[in-house]
Amino acid sequence: MAIDYRQVKSFLFREARLMDESAYDEWLALWADDALYWIPANIDDPDPANHISTIYDNRAHLEARIRRLRSGLAHAQAPKSRMRRVVSNIEIEEAAGGEIVTHSNFVLGEFRRGEQDVFIGRTIHKLRSDGAGGFRIFYKKVILLNNDGSIDNLTFLV
Amino acid sequence: MGDRKIDYDALVKSDRVHSSVYTDPAIFEDELDKIFHRGWVYVGHANEIPNRGDFRLKRIGKYPVIMVRGDDGDVRLLLNRCRHRGATVCQTEAGNAPVFRCAYHGWTYRNNGALAGVTYPDGYGDSLHKEDLGLTRVPRMGNYRGFIFGSVSPAGITLEDHLGKVTEQIDLFVDLSPEGEIEVRSGSSKSHYFGNWKLQIENTIDGYHPNFSHETFFEIMRQRTGAKVDVFYGNSLGETRDMGGGHVMLDYRRYNRQFASQTHSTPLRMRVQGATGTMPSTGVLDYRRAIEERNGPERAAEILNAGGTHTLVFPNMALLGVQIRVVYPIAPDKTEVVLYPTTLKGGSAKLNATRLRAHEDFYGPAGFGQPDDGELFARVQQGVQADLDPWLLFTRGLHREHRDADGTLVGQMTDEVPQRGIWSHWKKVMSQDAADSANAREDRVARAARGR
What we know:
Shape of chain A: globular
Structural class of chain A: alpha+beta
Distance between the termini of chain A: 30 Å
Structural class of chain B: alpha+beta
CATH architecture of the largest domain in chain B: Alpha-Beta Complex
Number of domains of chain A: 1
Largest sheet of chain B: 9 strands, antiparallel
Number of domains of chain B: 2
Strand content of chain B: 15-25%
Number of strands of chain A: 6
Low-confidence stretches of chain A: none
Helix content of chain B: 25-40%
CATH architecture of chain A: Roll
Radius of gyration of chain B: 23 Å
Number of helices of chain A: 3
Strand content of chain A: 35-45%
Order of helices and strands of chain A: HHEEHEEEE
Distance between the termini of chain B: 28 Å
Oligomer: heterodimer
């Protein structure tokens, strides 16, 4: 099956918009049941079995993350971050079994409590068809440019 | 320090402190001088640099420091400053190197600090005494079970006297390892917040805030593990303890004893694996057996009941959960916090991976707990600008604290015994005469000049 590039890109752009708008439930609905959501700490490609990560969520952890954010008691998102991001430099590959791997860069502006922060990174998505013309994310790794720097708040969606 | 003499007696009372201790830039500079550039501070762990030539960049107050294991196997703390024109000689956060070379004019230093070579040496005639120009050693260094402490002051109390009773808690943290050693090689979670550094150390040993600041975390923990955590309730059997010297702790022992007969109790699981770790009970049984074999039944029972610890080692280090926490004051209203999750030497791969995953749940900038603390510190920093009623209250539990047989001061889990302990010690250190401080600095310079 040939990849429809426009469809893949439009999926990534939609995901970015849902993150920008902290649309927690709609964003969670993009994920497969066997999800792995990974933001390594310190280095880009550590072995998570013996190196700490900033986020290393399976589906249950991801659901807990969203429940927490929705509770109104996640103080680091009270008030919520205002965000807009640009996703670009998208490269798309087809992997075995009809799976799709994308590499993309992002620049994210985040504004909260009177301060604007900029986050930059590279994201690897692994997608599979949801059988209804769309995709599900079953793997997402975010390589932050400043993964070895100190960060005050990363409780919004990246 | 400037000319202004700060009256610390007027700012820190036995049950309250004045807003300015969190906001005044002059007090911040005075803290760097008296606490971080004179006293003992935690620098790093020897296990971060296991091999000869291994180094890691560290900081003591404002001083950039190289913690390095020389070719002779000894750990040293060297100032990261070329003796020629002052540039830092090491730029890489961690690595292995036989020499450090200053890029400015090419001077090189061996990994024991000795000056190895100067470029175009003829240009100095015979005025250059290489043996006097090694990288400056941090004047005093001490090692307690791999925890490396340094003091920029050549004189002062010994590390043993500085640590006092808190070594018992360090032991309990380390002895959770089946081989009696922790490993500090799993990276670090680095955060900062826009608040004073003391907000973090006060909060690290605060048994009053978790049920409010971290309500969401306890709910997630209950859903994940089935465990309801009531240790932070107002009627908990858990205690707070002031060990003197600014070293304070949350003491879970009385609370945990309720579960001592359970082989797979929630408190045991929390201490060994972190709050949300889930490990099959066979793994826990194997682990218990290893601890008992190494330590004998009596000490093993103590380790399994009390181990893990939740302790502040004044001024800048804490042990809690699976982590070593290090606090770096950056500005009156900015602080960096670096958390090193530890693994247990001799622990199974599964156990150690579980510790890392549990750490991630609460800690780091995307964790379910730490960012909320940082947010609250920023709110305090904002709030204390309004200093019409300038006092922050630390009165909780004053009426019921008591002196234990071992001399430590004890309160209920939610009492502010630890905060009072930190503040009374802080006042003592900060009230040292500024002249003493200046003398110490002159003494330091004089000794350095003499000693080389």
